[in-house]
Amino acid sequence: MRLESFEGIGEGDRAVIRIGPGPLSLRWVAEHHDVVDGEQFCDRQVSGPFAHWDHTHRMEAVTGGTSRLVDSIEFALPGGPIGSQLGKWFARPELERQFAYRHRITRRDLELHQRYNPEGRALTIAVSGASGLVGSALTAMLTTGGHTVMPLVRTGPAGEGEILWDPRSGVVETEKFEAVDAVIHLAGENVFGLWTEQKKARILDSRATGTRLLADALADCENPPDTFISASAVGYYGDHGTEPITETSEPRQSGFLTAVCDAWEAAADPAREAGLRVVHPRIGVVLTPAGGALQLMLPAFQLGLGGRVGAPDQFFPWITIDDVIGSLYHMLWTDLEGPVNVTAPDPARMDEYTRTLAEVVHRPALLNPPVPMVRALGGEMAEEMLLQSARVLPEKLIDSGYDFAYDDLEAGLRHQIGRTQEQATAG
């Protein structure tokens, strides 16, 4: 399920959603009605896969200054009696998983806002890559807390509440950063795929050139933002075998990812030299079925065709997308600076990760591709992203008091896939 367009949750606003894979996806248009500001909104299907759909999303006051989120859904599938049975057997359990996941996310977001911003201070935050995998989730979390997000856009003219930032032409609307409290820079070319020379040039340029343009603009501001959070990755460290890696660890070899991360972080120097607090979240392997490694691996595991990629004792520096978002929010409100490892406290060995994912989806995982085959098919990308061992520890996050939502691999995977222990017991 993915959001294609969203007008808002005002009376008559519409959302367009795509359900299903690629060209087989179905278009679902929902319209909001009976909106009560701060209390509820409802949405009904205008067109889509259901014969009938009406959903009420309501916050109810409880004692002690707390509230309860209630979702009430009336739906029917097409097809008469057959559709009714399909709804009972398949649609209802899936909806229950979907909404249980949404409720866990909402609870976590509210807990973070209460912990870090109990007075409800509203920040204005510029975000690059706001429509990407991490950026879209971060934007939703920030706006939930009453903050204003100003997306950085690469094609002009920028609309109201947007900032033009075009690394190709070197154009950036510097003056708009005067009204911004912090900048979170996430944009960059996708690193998955065969690393041709053209692909590698795009990966490096999108990070080093784009970050330098942004850092120069922030340094030129008369009243710059206080904080610049500029993403990096654990690929900086390279292969360390079983040796624990902290933020003070140096790379073991000069591979392509190490060079990219080094240039990426150095490109923020103008902002650092201008006095901004600059943080480099070195992000690990983000677990979410919406993208990245888990999205690529999950279909094979669900079909019983999964297996271990790489050596069994190779470390896998995982983190759920929930804790990526939580870590970035933690960085906004604390005094962290420099590189910060954004990984779970207990990195898993590859055989543990494979076994755990297989147990969560209740399938065997016996098809372990030989390392020479992985290397031959994936080339340099496979060598650096799939076959290296990085036992990365989030020392700075732990020392600064960050509370992980998911520090256990099985619990994190169950949450992401919608197979929590509670739901397994209920179903």
Q: How would you describe this structure in keywords?
A:
single chain, 427 residues, alpha/beta, Alpha-D-Glucose-1,6-Bisphosphate, Chain A, domain 4, Rossmann fold, 2 domains, nine-stranded mixed sheet, six-stranded antiparallel sheet, 12 helices, 21 strands
CATH superfamily of the largest domain: NAD(P)-binding Rossmann-like Domain
The number of helical elements comes to 12
Q: Would you count the extended β strands for me?
A: 21
**Sheet with most strands:** 9 strands, mixed
Strand proportion: 15-25%
Number of domains: 2
Structural class: alpha/beta
CATH architecture of the largest domain: 3-Layer(aba) Sandwich
Briefly note the CATH topology name of the largest domain.
Answer: Rossmann fold
